[in-house]
Design goal:
The protein is mostly helical and about 325 residues long. It has 13 helices and no strands. The chain is globular. It has helices at about 10-35, 45-65, 75-100, 105-110, 115-125, 130-150, 160-165, 170-185, 190-215, 225-250, 255, 260-275, 280-315. About 75% of the residues lie in helices and about 0% in strands. Helix 1 (about 10-35) packs antiparallel against helix 10 (about 225-250), helix 4 runs antiparallel to helix 12 and helix 5 (about 115-125) runs parallel beside helix 8 (about 170-185). The two termini are about 20 Å apart.
């Protein structure tokens, strides 16, 4: 059985800290997006600002460092283009269109099923080794998804089912992006330059979509509450993208996918606090299945990581 190529954790405590912080940031984003969508911000316009804003912030920081990792080449542009498309444009746009039609807690659960797709993809590209416990976790997560989608009394309205299904585009795209980043990350590159490049290219991809659909969102002066909400998410997203690349670099794509446990819990917390969202028997059971599935994967991942670290120390 081949060893995993991405289980070398130079500092497990650092990886865990990045995981928790990234999970909290992204889990908060679902409630922020729902608030923005239900207060007049168009999904594509919101997606554009959540790409351009972090691109300016992260790009400025990356350029200020002026190291070799900020150099531009054709191969790097191709890398930025694919990452921007699969990691921002497709998943964010899909998620923001659904945000006003689904409870924030349900949106968080549906989107954060990345381990279901990321692990099989990692197996396919030989980035991870086969393990029955992880497969069992995937089956539990699939059961949780079915409990959200199939029962008529699960979601607040049957009209939400198509929107719930459409959100699965987001985790599929995120999984593709995480595998691509881990497999094809350019040499001599840092997280800042990669984040900036991905964000810049995603902004360029979104410009024609925003123009064609007349979805550009204009800020008001003085700023309104939705304006401030967009700015808040721009700041959080900027930090999140940096953490995203750094976590994959030091811990691998499957370990990164463990962030979903924290994201789901954070999404449930803010959904209840801000929108007074409460789970019924079906969605509560679904939460249990999905969280248990993620815990199964987390437990196995932690064991594999510790084994790799101990092996490195011995060698």
């Amino acid at each position: 059985m081949p060893k995993s190529k991405n289980l070398h954790l130079t500092n497990p405590l650092t990886s865990l800290s990045l995981l928790i912080l990234l999970g909290f940031i992204w889990g908060t984003g679902y409630s922020i997006a729902r608030f923005a969508m239900t207060n007049g911000v168009p999904p594509l316009g919101y997606s554009f600002w959540q790409s351009l804003g972090p691109a300016l912030i992260v790009g400025f920081i990356a350029l200020s460092r002026r190291n070799a990792s900020t150099k531009i080449s054709i191969s790097r542009c191709r890398y930025y283009l694919i990452c921007g498309l699969t990691g921002i444009v497709i998943p964010n746009t899909s998620m923001y269109f659904a945000a006003s039609h689904l409870p924030a807690s349900i949106l968080a659960m549906m989107v954060n099923t990345v381990p279901i797709i990321a692990y099989p993809m990692a197996l396919l590209f030989r980035l991870e080794s086969f393990n029955w416990q992880r497969i069992t976790g995937i089956l539990f997560a699939l059961t949780g998804l079915m409990l959200i989608i199939l029962p008529k009394s699960s979601l607040p309205s049957p009209d939400m089912v198509p929107w719930a299904l459409s959100t699965l585009i987001t985790p599929v795209s995120f999984a593709v992006c995480s595998i691509y980043i881990a497999r094809y990350r350019p040499s001599q590159s840092d997280s800042l330059s990669l984040s900036a490049g991905m964000l810049i290219f995603s902004s360029l991809l979104l410009i024609p979509l925003v123009v064609i659909t007349h979805s550009f969102y204009v800020f008001h002066f003085p700023f309104t509450l939705p304006d401030w909400i967009i700015i808040l998410e721009v700041i959080l997203s900027s930090l999140g993208y940096i953490l995203f690349f750094q976590l994959i670099k030091i811990a691998g794509p499957v370990y990164y996918s463990l962030v979903d446990t924290i994201v789901v819990l954070t999404g449930l917390f803010w959904g209840h606090l801000i929108f007074n969202e409460n789970l019924n028997q079906w969605t509560a059971t679904a939460v249990f299945f999905i969280l248990f599935a993620l815990l199964l994967v987390t437990r196995q991942q932690r064991r594999a990581a510790l084994t790799a670290v101990r092996g490195d120390r011995v060698s």
